[in-house]
Design brief:
Strands 5-4-3-2-1-8-7-6 form an 8-stranded antiparallel beta sheet, with helices on one face. By secondary structure, it is an alpha+beta fold. It has 4 helices and 8 strands, in the order ααβαββββαβββ. Strand 4 and strand 5 form a beta hairpin. The longest helix is centred in the N-terminal third of the chain and has 17 residues, at about 5-20. The termini are far apart. It has one domain: Beta Barrel (Lipocalin).
């Protein structure tokens, strides 16, 4: 019995430490429960407000149907989305309205959206899209 106790303690401690770094499972309801408004985007030299002078882009997940809708800050869109754990794949081929957009933000937004391959909800409840493990876009919940 005494020989088993140290082994048990080591096994217990190892399982505790390995679970500390694990990512919690994100509820699909969390993504679908609210619309999300863009507050940060990487990869541009233009100020955020200059990219989206009239309206900030939004995302609206309808995961029960495998659909991601939203607005680019100018044009509305709807596309298919697939999620597996914390991995995300957004289809580039989708219908979109065709208004002329000021500021160049729409192209940057769509470019970064399609490159997103992972997502998380951070400690502040914000949706973070990642590209190769690096934060590329961040959204906060909005009330419709």
């Amino acid at each position: 019995m005494k020989k088993l106790f140290p082994s048990f303690v080591l096994l217990f401690m190892a399982s505790m430490f390995s679970s500390c770094g694990s990512t919690s499972t994100i509820s699909m309801d969390t993504l679908s429960a609210s619309a999300w408004e863009l507050e940060y985007i990487t990869g541009t030299r233009i100020a955020f407000e200059g990219l989206f002078p009239e309206k900030k882009p939004t995302l609206d997940f309808r995961l029960g149907k495998g659909v991601l809708g939203g607005n680019t800050g100018c044009n509305g869109f709807s596309t298919s989305v697939s999620i597996n754990g914390d991995k995300i794949k957004i289809d580039e081929n989708h219908p979109m309205t065709m208004r002329y957009c000021e500021g160049g933000g729409e192209q940057q937004f769509l470019k970064m959206l399609y490159k997103a391959d992972q997502f998380k909800i951070d400690e502040d409840g914000k949706l973070v899209l990642l590209m190769n493990g690096i934060e590329s876009m961040r959204f906060h919940k909005i009330n419709d």
